[in-house]
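Protein in question filed below.

…
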Amino acid sequence: MLRVVNRVFLGLVGLVLLVLGGSVLAVGLGAPAPSWWIHHSRHDVLLSNAERTRWRDDGWWWPVVIAVLAVLMLLALWWLVAVLRRRRLAEVLVDTGDGDGALLRGRALENALTEEAARIDGVDRAHAHLRGRRSAPEARVRMALEPNVDPGTALHDLTTGALTHARTSAGLTSLPAEVRLRGVKHGAGRVS
């Protein structure tokens, strides 16, 4: 979801900047400007003296300008950190025993863990996600349990089955896991 929002946001920002920059460049090169455009000829300045000094004497102007710019900068930094932060583990380092290591795709291990967790009795659906370092991955598993299923039994089956198989197949000494269980609501039964 974040990837889609990121691409749409970048596309819109890029389109707005391209249209504004292109129109300013076109007017600056001598193209006729539309009647509603803020500049009418190539000799117009971007900000005139009157536009620049219009609000200078008011006490609220500079704090508002600084606050708006600070908020925009914080939003841009938040977006940059969200884009650069890796949420998934791309690969897991598997010890082959010969001094070298093999790389296992993180998605492959996630898919195997998800499929095995979904096959546990009483689990409606499951989703696994790997985080951490490639030499010490951590699993986050979300499971939706069917009504009247004992969560303790489902958790025990997950830890002794799917998580143990994932740990041994990847040759890891440990695979810490955070498991989130939730119940699936069931529809009312029909009584006749």
Remarks:
- The first strand starts at residue 91 and ends at 95.
- The longest helix spans residues 2-28.
- The mean pLDDT is 84.
